[in-house]
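Posting here for the record, re: flavin-adenine dinucleotide.
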Amino acid sequence: GEEVWCQGFSEPDAGSDLAALRTRAYRDGDDYVITGSKIWTSHAEVADWCELLVRTDPGAPKHRGISWLAMPMDAPGVTVRPLRTLAGSTEFAEVFLDEVRVPVANRVGEENDGWRVTMVTLSFERGTAFVGEVVACRRVLGEVAEEARANGRWDDPGVRRRLGRLNAEFRTLWRLTQWNVSEAESSGGVPG
Ligand SMILES: Cc1cc2nc3c(=O)[nH]c(=O)nc-3n(C[C@H](O)[C@H](O)[C@H](O)COP(=O)(O)OP(=O)(O)OC[C@H]3O[C@@H](n4cnc5c(N)ncnc54)[C@H](O)[C@@H]3O)c2cc1C
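Prediction output follows.
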């Protein structure tokens, strides 16, 4: 927990269609010079580094012209603007990039091969990245059930049905996590 990374993938017009991203990087000597903006970047305001997707070949088919860079968040030209959610938290931010210089040595994978690197990254998210949330949900549900038993609400069949349904959903998520782990083991350690 000594170093925090954020994920600079999504853009205002590149969400579900991530490969439509337009943040542009061109080579200048040993650096990429980057201009564009990212959105929904979780924990950007506390991150030390960003996994940044940039377009290095605007002429190539959209999945082919993308590169993956490790960008220090304190580089000149990086501006982070937190977004407040309805629940009041500011875990997300917009990140604006204005002629930010990142060394070519910070690229992971080949130039224009960033989509493949991204799919490896995302396979971890589809694997076990959210196991903490599943554990927390199951614990909170247990506490809610205990409270319902203590205060008499448990006698209401509607309450029991809703808690039972949630319990089934969380158990399913937990089984899915276990299944992901054993699948990854049997396929040589690749998650997702
Ligand atoms: C909790 C959370 C944390 C996140 N953290 C990060 C982060 O750290 N870094 C980052 O880069 N991104 C992050 N994101 C963004 C996320 O990964 C997605 O990129 C983003 O939520 C989807 O894009 P959008 O919101 O622009 O929705 P859109 O792509 O605009 O989609 C809006 C709606 O249209 C539907 N839709 C879209 N395309 C089609 C289609 N072709 N056909 C039919 N329906 C369609 C979608 O299903 C959706 O219902 C985060 C999102 C969440 C919820």
